[in-house]
Amino acid sequence: MANIRWTVVTGASSGIGAEMARVFSGIGHNLVLVARRRDRLEKLAEELRKRDGGIIEVVEADLADPKAPQAVFDAVRALEIEVHTLVNDAGFGLGGDFLERPISEHMNLVDVNIGAVTRLCHLFLPGMLERKQGGIINVSSLAAFLAGPHMATYFASKAYVLSLSEALYEEARPHGVVVTALCPGATDTEFGERAGILKTKLFSGRKMSAETVARIGIEGYRAGHAIVVPGPMNRITAQFSRLMPRFTSRRVAASLNRKP
Ligand SMILES: NC(=O)c1ccc[n+]([C@@H]2O[C@H](COP(=O)([O-])OP(=O)(O)OC[C@H]3O[C@@H](n4cnc5c(N)ncnc54)[C@H](OP(=O)(O)O)[C@@H]3O)[C@@H](O)[C@H]2O)c1
Predict the structure, then answer these.
(1) Boundaries of every domain in the chain
(2) Atom 7, ligand 1: which residue's CA is nearest?
(3) Enclosing H/E stretch for 247
(4) Helix-helix angle 117-131:152-172, to 10 degrees
(5) Mutation test residue for ligand 1: of 13, 160, 207, the one with most atoms within 8 Å of CB
(6) Alpha-helical segments (H) within 96-140
């Protein structure tokens, strides 16, 4: 029992987070699944208990609430477990011009994509550093490498997650703890529809499966990588985004994000 590893996955009710949960369960981790849709979490928990025989706990939380990360941490502490890995996957996008949406929607995005990720890292990292093992996977995006007109706050939020993760990677590394930024490109999940971007060039092309993204992300984390960009085309895009002058990259992003 002492050797069983526990992983907390936020955003486990669909898409990449659900697939991350499946991969971690498959390699013998017990799980705490976090999101708002409890029914989805319970269904996944049941599937994984049957398939892998591990212990799967469910914590319902709306991570837009600044108090939610502490509540998740307290719920995990009440289980009397040591968390080996935290996956900060919960997040969402908002397509369209900045002024098309009320500020409340943008701030909601900031609270989930930035606020909750920062708070959860601050809560879970001390135990990892003390035990000198495990780490965190923060789900960022290819969007982190450039500014994103017509999806401004989402791109900015993912740049924050990449920067935070890289900095924490260096701070945690001497203690044997890994912090990985997973930067997927377009992935086939509920994300595109929820963000209202299904008709943009960015999202109407080929997409990777959430399963492949999750598997590559976890492999990279376990290999101790700071940044994981899944898929050769996405790696080329990330590289080009870094080499291009910023006035070019932001115009490319604008044309990809613009609605027809
Ligand atoms: N799909 C892509 O093309 C793509 C590309 C790059 C990066 N990403 C990133 O990948 C991550 C996962 O997205 P996905 O593509 O798998 O989309 P998804 O299928 O829509 O999953 C998003 C997950 O985040 C959870 N979530 C959203 N808001 C939440 C809140 N307020 N409180 C708690 N949980 C919340 C959702 O759960 P509930 O709704 O049940 O709460 C869901 O489990 C996100 O951070 C996204 O930015 C996606």
Answers:
(1) 6-257
(2) 141
(3) helix 246-257
(4) 10
(5) 13
(6) 103-109, 117-131
CA-proximal residue: ligand 1, atom 16 (nearest):
15
* Helices and strands, number each (H, E), in the chain: 11, 9
> Any idea which architecture 6-257 has in CATH?
3-Layer(aba) Sandwich (3.40)
44-60 residue pLDDT tens: 999 999 999 999 999 99
- Whole-Å CA distances, 69 to 10, 37, 143, 191: 10, 16, 25, 22
Work out the mean pLDDT of the chain and round it to a whole number: 97
pLDDT at residue 37 greater than cutoff 60: yes
CA of 90 to the centre of ligand 1 (A): 5
Average pLDDT for residues 151-165, to the nearest whole number?
A: 98
Told to judge if 169 belongs to the known catalytic residues of this protein, a careful annotator would answer no
Residue 133: Cβ within 10 Å count: 16
